[in-house]
Structure to design on (421 residues):
């Protein structure tokens, strides 16, 4: 363990200044989004809206990303990463500020679109930025650092969000978790977003001309292969959208938790993601990419069932932790597996297609789940998620387990849009 820690410290010291600034940016923006995300759904319900409208708002950013990822990738080629990151911060801060202050239905939906546009700009910028600012030897560590910092920030943000809201409630609202108490926390998250702009502003890159291969990446893409590689993960995305955006509501309403207790429970999920990111490469070295993904996804299903149908808080929290750890352990593995099927000139094209398709799948199920919860509670959404996870795992096994070259044990780094399964 000491050798592993020493290796990571040395690897961090060797990173380029641009890479280190991007890591700082990742931490701050993930912290802000986590603080905001913990209480936003609760805030919307407190203002008088139903779960159906929460489902609408939860789906809009992902649908916007799905619509804009590919056009943005085509239109922003050659624009410095610093400008795209600053634009993302500006759009996201404006959207979050508006959602914290405006409660009318139509403006909230429009602000959700703005937030999705910001996320799309971030998604298409991160991969090429990290790839350009690392060597092949450095890249695995850089992506590991980025994943770990994002999840660590989400852990801290969930804790801070619960504590902050409880503090506002105690100071100004006689301990009641009112919409105003939630709003103060949302505004604090907006201030954190602005802090991320400083790290982005320090990134300095020369604009590199595109090669012919990159210019023709979309037209030369093997669509049949792309469909086969992406399909299992898109099915998982549909299943994840049924439940994961509503975990804060699931815990708070199912177990009548106070906001600080809710913040603690939710903070365990990014902590599980961080542990998952650490164990993934070790299993890949032993059994290969495909078997590792099958193992992680298959083992998560019993924990998902326990999480959905246990009536006791502690088993539910532990099952949620285990499920999150296992499913997210497969994310870095899948990123390498996916991009390993395509030449490097097509990586940004494949990543933007995946971003669009995954967000479309995830958002469609998020919207559907909000409607289903009004009639069936969380029972049917959990059953759908379990079915999707099982089917996707079976499909992955049937298509790739014995395919030549797809179960290799050595893996190079890659990046995918951030999302929680």
């Amino acid at each position: 363990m000491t050798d592993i820690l020493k290796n990571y410290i040395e690897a961090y010291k060797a990173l380029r200044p641009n890479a280190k600034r991007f890591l700082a940016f990742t931490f701050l923006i993930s912290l802000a989004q986590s603080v905001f995300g913990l209480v936003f759904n609760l805030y919307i319900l407190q203002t008088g809206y139903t779960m159906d409208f929460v489902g609408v708002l939860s789906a809009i950013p992902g649908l916007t990303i799905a619509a804009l990822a590919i056009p943005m990738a085509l239109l922003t080629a050659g624009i410095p990463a610093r400008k795209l990151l600053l634009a993302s911060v500006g759009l996201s801060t404006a959207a979050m500020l508006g959602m914290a202050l405006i409660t009318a239905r139509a403006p909230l939906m429009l602000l959700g679109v703005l937030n999705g546009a910001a996320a799309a700009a971030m998604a298409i910028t991160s991969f090429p930025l990290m790839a350009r600012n690392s060597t092949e030897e450095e890249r695995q560590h850089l992506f590991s650092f980025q994943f770990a910092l994002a999840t660590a920030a989400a852990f801290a943000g969930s804790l801070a969000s619960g504590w902050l809201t409880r503090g506002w409630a105690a100071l100004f609202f006689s301990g009641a978790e009112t919409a105003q108490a939630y709003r103060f926390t949302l505004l604090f998250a907006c201030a954190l977003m602005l802090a991320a702009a400083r790290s982005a502003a320090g990134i300095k890159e020369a604009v590199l001309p595109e090669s012919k291969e990159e210019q023709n990446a979309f037209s030369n893409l093997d669509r049949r292969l792309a469909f086969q590689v992406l399909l299992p993960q898109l099915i998982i995305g549909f299943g994840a959208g049924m439940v994961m955006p509503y975990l804060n509501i699931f815990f708070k309403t199912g177990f009548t938790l106070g906001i600080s207790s809710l913040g603690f429970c939710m903070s365990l999920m990014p902590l599980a993601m961080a542990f998952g990111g650490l164990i993934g490469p070790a299993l890949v070295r032993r059994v290969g990419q495909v078997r590792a993904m099958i193992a992680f996804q298959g083992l998560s299903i019993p924990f998902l069932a326990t999480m959905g149908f246990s009536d006791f808080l502690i088993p539910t929290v532990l099952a949620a932790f285990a499920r999150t750890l296992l499913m997210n352990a497969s994310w870095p593995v899948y990123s390498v597996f996916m991009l390993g099927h395509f030449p490097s000139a097509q990586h940004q094209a494949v990543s933007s297609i995946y971003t669009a398709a995954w967000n479309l799948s995830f958002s469609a199920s998020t919207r559907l789940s909000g409607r289903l919860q009004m009639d069936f509670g969380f029972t049917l959404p959990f059953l759908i998620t379990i079915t999707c996870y099982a089917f996707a795992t079976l499909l992955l096994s049937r298509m790739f387990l014995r395919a030549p070259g797809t179960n290799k044990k050595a893996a190079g780094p890659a990046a995918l849009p951030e999302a929680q399964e």
In short: The longest helix spans residues 136-172. Residues 410-420 have pLDDT under 50 and may be disordered.
